């Protein structure tokens, strides 16, 4: 009985330690397959801007263990991706449906997304062109 309690305690510790404490906040950019995009995270919401200057609007997201659940432009139900936090400034999203894997890097400069859309777009274009994703 004592051995059973000991093993049970170890399993509880292992399961609790596997839960992710990582959170997403701030602004990130990605080049993928010739396309540029920026993601903005605030509290439990995310905002996507594509290289073609299409805006998603704020959508809720959740992270459970190693998976992020969020809405996309074209799919009305939540999409899921495995999330791998590489370091404080980068993370990878892997989508099983189409084998897509994207690495996002933190943007160091402020973006002004919510304050001044014209200034944001001017700086967005500079960031997009500087990365030269093939757009």
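^ Assign residues to that structure.
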């Amino acid at each position: 009985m004592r051995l059973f309690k000991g093993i049970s305690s170890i399993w509880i510790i292992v399961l609790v330690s596997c839960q992710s404490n990582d959170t997403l906040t701030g602004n990130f950019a990605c080049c993928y397959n010739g396309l540029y995009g920026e993601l903005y995270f605030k509290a439990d919401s995310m905002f996507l801007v594509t290289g073609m200057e299409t805006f998603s609007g704020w959508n809720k997201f959740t992270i459970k263990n190693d998976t992020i659940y969020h809405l996309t432009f074209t799919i009305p139900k939540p999409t899921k991706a495995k999330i791998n936090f590489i370091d404080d400034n980068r993370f990878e999203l892997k989508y099983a449906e189409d084998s897509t894997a994207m690495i996002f890097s933190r943007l160091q400069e402020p973006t002004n997304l919510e304050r001044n859309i014209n200034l944001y777009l001017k700086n967005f274009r500079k960031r997009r062109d500087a990365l030269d994703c093939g757009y």
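The chain is about 25% helix and 40% strand.
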